[in-house]
Amino acid sequence: MVPPSGSGQRRYPGSLLHIILAAVLVGVAAAGKLPPDIKRCSRSSPQFSSCLRDAVQDTLPKLKHGLPKLGLPPLDPLIVSELRISQGDGPVGLNLVFKDLITTGLVDNDEVYTAEIDLEKLTINASFLFPRAVVTSNYTVNGKVLLLPVTGSGGCKVVLKDCACRWRMQGQRIKKKDGKEYIDVVTTEIKMTPKKMEMQFDNLFNGDPQLGKTMNRVLNDNWELVYNEIGSSFEEAYAEVVRQHTRSLFLHVPLEDLFLK
Predict the structure, then answer these.
(1) pLDDT by residue (tens digit) across 1-10?
(2) Calpha distance 208→110 (Å, rounded)
(3) Residue 77: is the preceding peptide bond cis (ω within 30°)?
(4) Cα(98)–Cα(104) distance, rounded to whole angstroms?
(5) Contact, 239 vs 188, CB < 8 A?
(6) What is the pLDDT at residue 74?
(7) C-alpha angle with apex 103: 123 to 59, nearest 5 degrees?
(8) CA dihedral 45, 51, 56, 57 (to 10 degrees)
(9) Three-state SS for 121?
(10) Contact 101, 136 (CB under 8 A)
(11) What pLDDT score was predicted for residue 88?
(12) Which residues contact residue 150 at a Cβ distance below 8 angstroms, ignoring those fewer than 6 apart?
Protein backbone atom coordinates (compact mmCIF):
# COMPACT_ATOMS: atom_id res chain seq x y z
CA MET A 1 0.00 0.00 0.00
CA VAL A 2 1.28 3.46 -0.80
CA PRO A 3 2.34 5.12 2.49
CA PRO A 4 0.36 8.18 3.54
CA SER A 5 1.76 11.53 2.52
CA GLY A 6 2.57 13.98 5.27
CA SER A 7 2.91 12.94 8.88
CA GLY A 8 1.15 13.20 12.18
CA GLN A 9 -0.84 11.34 14.77
CA ARG A 10 -3.52 8.86 13.78
CA ARG A 11 -5.88 7.16 16.20
CA TYR A 12 -7.32 3.99 14.76
CA PRO A 13 -11.05 3.30 15.00
CA GLY A 14 -12.15 1.03 17.77
CA SER A 15 -14.52 -1.01 15.63
CA LEU A 16 -14.22 -1.86 11.95
CA LEU A 17 -16.21 -4.61 10.32
CA HIS A 18 -14.09 -5.10 7.24
CA ILE A 19 -13.04 -8.07 9.38
CA ILE A 20 -16.29 -9.68 8.27
CA LEU A 21 -15.11 -9.73 4.68
CA ALA A 22 -11.80 -11.21 5.76
CA ALA A 23 -13.60 -13.93 7.67
CA VAL A 24 -15.74 -14.84 4.68
CA LEU A 25 -12.76 -14.99 2.37
CA VAL A 26 -11.29 -17.87 4.31
CA GLY A 27 -14.56 -19.56 5.21
CA VAL A 28 -14.04 -18.98 8.94
CA ALA A 29 -16.60 -19.39 11.71
CA ALA A 30 -16.49 -20.12 15.41
CA ALA A 31 -15.03 -23.55 16.16
CA GLY A 32 -14.52 -24.06 12.44
CA LYS A 33 -18.22 -24.53 11.80
CA LEU A 34 -20.13 -22.57 9.18
CA PRO A 35 -23.91 -22.08 9.02
CA PRO A 36 -25.49 -24.52 6.54
CA ASP A 37 -26.56 -21.73 4.18
CA ILE A 38 -22.98 -20.52 3.64
CA LYS A 39 -21.23 -22.04 0.66
CA ARG A 40 -17.99 -23.91 1.34
CA CYS A 41 -15.15 -24.69 -1.03
CA SER A 42 -12.69 -27.56 -1.31
CA ARG A 43 -9.04 -26.58 -1.30
CA SER A 44 -8.23 -29.50 -3.61
CA SER A 45 -10.71 -28.40 -6.26
CA PRO A 46 -9.31 -26.92 -9.50
CA GLN A 47 -12.15 -24.38 -9.27
CA PHE A 48 -11.21 -23.36 -5.73
CA SER A 49 -10.68 -19.65 -6.56
CA SER A 50 -13.90 -19.28 -8.54
CA CYS A 51 -15.80 -21.20 -5.85
CA LEU A 52 -14.37 -18.89 -3.21
CA ARG A 53 -15.34 -15.80 -5.18
CA ASP A 54 -18.90 -17.11 -5.55
CA ALA A 55 -19.02 -17.98 -1.85
CA VAL A 56 -18.00 -14.47 -0.86
CA GLN A 57 -20.52 -12.95 -3.27
CA ASP A 58 -23.29 -15.13 -1.87
CA THR A 59 -22.38 -14.60 1.79
CA LEU A 60 -21.85 -10.84 2.01
CA PRO A 61 -25.58 -9.91 2.00
CA LYS A 62 -26.17 -12.45 4.78
CA LEU A 63 -23.71 -10.58 6.97
CA LYS A 64 -25.50 -7.24 6.86
CA HIS A 65 -27.18 -7.90 10.20
CA GLY A 66 -24.32 -9.97 11.57
CA LEU A 67 -24.08 -13.58 12.70
CA PRO A 68 -24.73 -13.42 16.47
CA LYS A 69 -24.20 -17.13 17.03
CA LEU A 70 -20.67 -16.74 15.63
CA GLY A 71 -19.96 -13.57 17.56
CA LEU A 72 -19.89 -11.45 14.42
CA PRO A 73 -21.61 -8.03 14.79
CA PRO A 74 -23.69 -6.33 12.08
CA LEU A 75 -21.89 -4.92 9.06
CA ASP A 76 -24.54 -2.25 8.50
CA PRO A 77 -24.36 0.17 10.16
CA LEU A 78 -20.60 0.18 10.65
CA ILE A 79 -19.56 2.23 13.69
CA VAL A 80 -16.09 3.72 14.19
CA SER A 81 -15.35 5.65 17.37
CA GLU A 82 -12.67 8.06 16.17
CA LEU A 83 -10.26 8.76 13.33
CA ARG A 84 -7.59 11.47 13.42
CA ILE A 85 -5.82 12.74 10.32
CA SER A 86 -2.93 15.18 10.30
CA GLN A 87 -1.60 16.24 6.90
CA GLY A 88 1.01 18.99 6.80
CA ASP A 89 2.29 18.90 3.24
CA GLY A 90 0.82 19.40 -0.22
CA PRO A 91 -2.11 21.49 -1.44
CA VAL A 92 -4.36 19.96 1.21
CA GLY A 93 -3.09 20.42 4.75
CA LEU A 94 -5.59 19.45 7.44
CA ASN A 95 -5.84 18.59 11.09
CA LEU A 96 -9.07 16.65 10.88
CA VAL A 97 -10.83 14.62 13.55
CA PHE A 98 -13.87 12.43 12.89
CA LYS A 99 -15.84 11.13 15.89
CA ASP A 100 -18.70 8.65 16.09
CA LEU A 101 -18.58 7.66 12.43
CA ILE A 102 -21.57 5.68 11.20
CA THR A 103 -21.22 4.01 7.79
CA THR A 104 -24.04 2.40 5.84
CA GLY A 105 -24.18 0.70 2.44
CA LEU A 106 -20.96 -1.31 2.56
CA VAL A 107 -22.68 -4.61 1.70
CA ASP A 108 -25.53 -3.39 -0.47
CA ASN A 109 -25.21 -4.85 -3.97
CA ASP A 110 -21.44 -5.39 -3.71
CA GLU A 111 -19.72 -7.02 -6.67
CA VAL A 112 -16.85 -9.36 -5.80
CA TYR A 113 -14.29 -9.57 -8.60
CA THR A 114 -11.68 -11.92 -7.15
CA ALA A 115 -10.98 -13.86 -3.96
CA GLU A 116 -7.74 -15.84 -3.90
CA ILE A 117 -5.80 -17.71 -1.24
CA ASP A 118 -2.28 -19.12 -1.48
CA LEU A 119 -2.14 -21.81 1.19
CA GLU A 120 1.62 -22.22 0.84
CA LYS A 121 2.53 -18.55 1.19
CA LEU A 122 -0.52 -17.82 3.38
CA THR A 123 -1.58 -14.78 1.41
CA ILE A 124 -5.18 -13.70 0.84
CA ASN A 125 -6.08 -11.28 -1.94
CA ALA A 126 -9.51 -9.95 -2.80
CA SER A 127 -10.97 -7.24 -5.00
CA PHE A 128 -14.53 -5.98 -4.91
CA LEU A 129 -16.71 -2.93 -5.48
CA PHE A 130 -19.42 -1.34 -3.37
CA PRO A 131 -21.73 1.04 -5.27
CA ARG A 132 -22.42 3.56 -2.50
CA ALA A 133 -21.37 4.02 1.10
CA VAL A 134 -22.52 6.89 3.30
CA VAL A 135 -20.52 8.10 6.29
CA THR A 136 -22.05 10.48 8.83
CA SER A 137 -19.92 11.85 11.63
CA ASN A 138 -19.06 14.72 13.93
CA TYR A 139 -15.88 16.52 12.93
CA THR A 140 -13.43 19.27 13.80
CA VAL A 141 -11.07 20.70 11.18
CA ASN A 142 -8.37 23.29 10.91
CA GLY A 143 -6.06 23.77 7.93
CA LYS A 144 -6.08 24.68 4.27
CA VAL A 145 -7.39 23.49 0.93
CA LEU A 146 -5.70 24.92 -2.16
CA LEU A 147 -4.22 27.70 0.01
CA LEU A 148 -7.70 28.58 1.29
CA PRO A 149 -8.06 28.41 5.09
CA VAL A 150 -10.71 26.09 6.49
CA THR A 151 -11.93 25.74 10.04
CA GLY A 152 -15.05 24.43 11.71
CA SER A 153 -16.77 21.79 13.80
CA GLY A 154 -20.14 20.10 13.59
CA GLY A 155 -21.78 17.34 11.60
CA CYS A 156 -20.63 16.05 8.23
CA LYS A 157 -21.59 13.58 5.54
CA VAL A 158 -19.26 11.82 3.09
CA VAL A 159 -20.50 9.64 0.24
CA LEU A 160 -18.22 7.25 -1.65
CA LYS A 161 -19.59 6.09 -4.99
CA ASP A 162 -18.52 3.05 -7.03
CA CYS A 163 -15.57 2.40 -4.74
CA ALA A 164 -13.17 -0.32 -5.91
CA CYS A 165 -11.31 -2.04 -3.08
CA ARG A 166 -8.24 -4.26 -2.97
CA TRP A 167 -7.45 -6.23 0.17
CA ARG A 168 -4.32 -8.25 0.96
CA MET A 169 -3.30 -10.22 4.03
CA GLN A 170 0.02 -11.89 4.80
CA GLY A 171 0.11 -14.59 7.44
CA GLN A 172 2.54 -17.11 8.88
CA ARG A 173 2.01 -20.59 10.28
CA ILE A 174 2.32 -21.26 13.99
CA LYS A 175 1.70 -24.45 15.96
CA LYS A 176 -0.09 -24.28 19.30
CA LYS A 177 -0.09 -26.67 22.24
CA ASP A 178 -2.99 -28.62 20.75
CA GLY A 179 -0.61 -29.70 17.96
CA LYS A 180 -2.61 -27.90 15.27
CA GLU A 181 -1.45 -25.16 12.91
CA TYR A 182 -2.95 -21.67 12.95
CA ILE A 183 -2.52 -18.49 10.93
CA ASP A 184 -0.83 -15.56 12.63
CA VAL A 185 -1.69 -12.42 10.65
CA VAL A 186 1.46 -10.36 10.10
CA THR A 187 0.33 -7.57 7.77
CA THR A 188 -2.75 -6.34 5.95
CA GLU A 189 -3.11 -3.79 3.18
CA ILE A 190 -6.25 -2.06 1.89
CA LYS A 191 -6.56 0.21 -1.13
CA MET A 192 -9.82 2.05 -1.89
CA THR A 193 -10.44 3.93 -5.15
CA PRO A 194 -13.80 5.70 -5.44
CA LYS A 195 -15.07 7.05 -8.74
CA LYS A 196 -16.67 9.92 -6.86
CA MET A 197 -16.66 11.41 -3.38
CA GLU A 198 -19.25 13.90 -2.19
CA MET A 199 -18.83 15.93 1.03
CA GLN A 200 -20.97 18.19 3.17
CA PHE A 201 -19.45 19.81 6.25
CA ASP A 202 -21.90 21.77 8.38
CA ASN A 203 -20.99 24.78 10.52
CA LEU A 204 -17.76 25.69 8.74
CA PHE A 205 -16.29 29.04 9.75
CA ASN A 206 -18.49 29.20 12.85
CA GLY A 207 -21.64 28.81 10.79
CA ASP A 208 -20.97 31.53 8.20
CA PRO A 209 -23.40 30.44 5.44
CA GLN A 210 -21.57 32.00 2.51
CA LEU A 211 -18.06 30.88 3.49
CA GLY A 212 -19.37 27.42 4.36
CA LYS A 213 -21.14 27.06 1.02
CA THR A 214 -18.06 28.23 -0.86
CA MET A 215 -15.71 25.84 0.97
CA ASN A 216 -18.03 22.85 0.47
CA ARG A 217 -18.11 23.67 -3.23
CA VAL A 218 -14.30 23.85 -3.31
CA LEU A 219 -14.04 20.50 -1.54
CA ASN A 220 -16.44 18.79 -3.93
CA ASP A 221 -14.97 20.38 -7.05
CA ASN A 222 -11.55 19.07 -5.96
CA TRP A 223 -12.64 15.81 -4.35
CA GLU A 224 -9.93 13.74 -6.04
CA LEU A 225 -7.23 16.02 -4.70
CA VAL A 226 -8.74 15.85 -1.21
CA TYR A 227 -9.09 12.07 -1.34
CA ASN A 228 -5.54 11.62 -2.61
CA GLU A 229 -4.30 13.53 0.41
CA ILE A 230 -6.42 11.93 3.15
CA GLY A 231 -7.47 8.58 1.66
CA SER A 232 -4.31 6.74 2.64
CA SER A 233 -4.94 7.66 6.29
CA PHE A 234 -8.29 5.88 6.13
CA GLU A 235 -6.71 2.90 4.35
CA GLU A 236 -3.96 2.63 6.94
CA ALA A 237 -6.40 2.82 9.83
CA TYR A 238 -8.72 0.25 8.29
CA ALA A 239 -5.82 -2.10 7.51
CA GLU A 240 -4.48 -2.04 11.06
CA VAL A 241 -7.87 -2.75 12.61
CA VAL A 242 -8.44 -5.58 10.13
CA ARG A 243 -5.02 -7.01 11.05
CA GLN A 244 -5.77 -6.91 14.77
CA HIS A 245 -9.17 -8.57 14.42
CA THR A 246 -8.21 -11.17 11.83
CA ARG A 247 -5.20 -12.10 13.94
CA SER A 248 -7.40 -12.65 16.98
CA LEU A 249 -9.90 -14.66 14.94
CA PHE A 250 -7.43 -16.86 13.08
CA LEU A 251 -5.50 -17.72 16.24
CA HIS A 252 -8.67 -19.39 17.52
CA VAL A 253 -9.47 -21.47 14.41
CA PRO A 254 -7.05 -24.23 13.30
CA LEU A 255 -5.86 -24.04 9.70
CA GLU A 256 -7.22 -27.53 9.02
CA ASP A 257 -10.72 -26.30 9.92
CA LEU A 258 -10.70 -23.35 7.54
CA PHE A 259 -11.24 -25.35 4.35
CA LEU A 260 -12.75 -28.54 3.11
CA LYS A 261 -10.18 -31.03 1.86
Answers:
(1) 333 334 344 4
(2) 39
(3) yes
(4) 16
(5) yes
(6) 73
(7) 50
(8) 180
(9) coil
(10) yes
(11) 64
(12) 94, 141, 142, 143, 144, 204, 205, 215
